[in-house]
Amino acid sequence: MKYLVFDEMSKEDYDKVTVNVQVHFEEREKGNLPPHVVADHFIHGDLPQFTQSIRAFKIYETDDPQQLANIEALWTANDVKSWKRWIIPITERNAFVSAYEQYKKKVK
């Protein structure tokens, strides 16, 4: 399953957590955190629900719910007051279109 993940935090908190990035990489290498399908990107435009100056997104792919729990626990342990995260399940377009066409025939 793939997940579109949005993160945000203040610049001050971002400066604090960058020192813990090594732990993040080590945990990912051990398989305790979901792998990135696409590396982090910074968003250079405003999205209405974001309120902090640091905004990023990534795409995870995992079938292991423990990996999602682990990444949440790791970042929560950093006690970043301004951090917010949205995890949104996504599917590839072709998978949706195939299923849509199949069900469209059944419901007629």
Query: Any guess at the CATH architecture?
Result: 2-Layer Sandwich
Q: What's the total number of strands?
A: 4
Number of helices: 4
Low-confidence sequence ranges: none
Whole-number count of domains: 1
Q: What class would the helix/strand composition place it in?
A: alpha+beta
Main sheet: strand order: 2-3-1-4
* CA-based gyration radius: 17 Å
Oligomer: single chain
Strand content: 25-35%
Please outline the major beta sheet: 4 strands, antiparallel
Helix content: 25-40%
Order of helices and strands: EHHEEHEH
Estimate the mean pLDDT confidence. 83
Could you name the CATH topology? Alpha-Beta Plaits
CATH class: Alpha Beta
> How far do the termini sit from each other?
30 Å
Q: Assign an overall shape.
A: elongated
Description:
This protein is an alpha+beta fold. The protein has one domain (2-106): Alpha-Beta Plaits, CATH 3.30.70. Helix content is 40%, strand content 28%. The chain contains four helices and four strands. It has helices at residues 11-17, 21-29, 65-77, 93-106, and strands at residues 2-9, 36-42, 54-61, 84-90. The protein has a four-stranded antiparallel sheet. The longest helix is centred in the last third of the chain and has 14 residues, at 93-106. It is elongated, with a radius of gyration of 17 Å. The chain starts with a strand and ends with a helix.
